[in-house]
């Protein structure tokens, strides 16, 4: 804030800053299947989503026991890229692993 003089009176002039809106975040989900190995899921979580080994194992167990797990929250373009990377690497390895994304 800045002070300005107004003919003997002092007033406070306020500056209004335009706030930049944050892009909406999308939740990336990984789905359980009966064929993809737990080790491959952990590898995807560590390499694509940059999770620590402990965090990757926790998410993998969530996927295994609940059928779905949250890999992270990202802007649309990043979420879409991560889903594509998982699908591409899974197909190369012969796994039917599936990821999806939804607005959070």
What features would you describe in this structure?
The protein has 104 residues and is of the alpha+beta class. The protein has a single domain, classed as 2-Layer Sandwich (Ribosomal Protein L30, Chain: A). Helices cover 39% and strands 30% of the residues. It is built from 3 helices and 5 strands. The strands form 2 sheets. Strands 4-3-5 form a 3-stranded antiparallel β-sheet. Strands 1-2 form a two-stranded antiparallel sheet. Helix 1 packs across helix 2. The protein is elongated, with a radius of gyration of 23 Å. It starts with a strand and ends with a strand. The relative contact order is 0.24. The model has no long low-confidence stretch (mean pLDDT 90).
Biggest β-sheet: strands ordered side by side in the sheet: 4-3-5
The separation of the N and C termini measures 36 Å
Strand content: 25-35%
Q: What is the CATH C-level name?
A: Alpha Beta
The total count of helices amounts to 3
Q: Please tally the β strands and state the result.
A: 5
Main sheet attributes: strand count, strand direction, barrel closure: 3 strands, antiparallel
CATH topology: Ribosomal Protein L30, Chain: A
GO biological process, one term: proteolysis
Family: Belongs to the ClpS family.
Keywords: Hydrolase, Protease
Subunit structure: Binds to the N-terminal domain of the chaperone ClpA.
């Amino acid at each position: 804030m800045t002070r300005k003089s107004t003919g003997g009176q002092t007033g406070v002039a306020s500056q209004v800053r335009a706030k930049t809106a944050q892009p909406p975040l999308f939740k990336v989900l990984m789905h359980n299947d009966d064929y993809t190995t737990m080790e491959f899921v952990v590898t995807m979580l560590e390499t694509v989503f940059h999770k620590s080994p402990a965090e990757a194992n926790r998410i993998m167990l969530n996927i295994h026991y609940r059928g779905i797990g949250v890999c992270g929250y990202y802007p649309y373009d990043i979420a879409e890229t991560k889903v594509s990377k998982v699908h591409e690497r899974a197909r190369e390895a012969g796994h039917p692993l599936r990821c999806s994304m939804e607005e959070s």
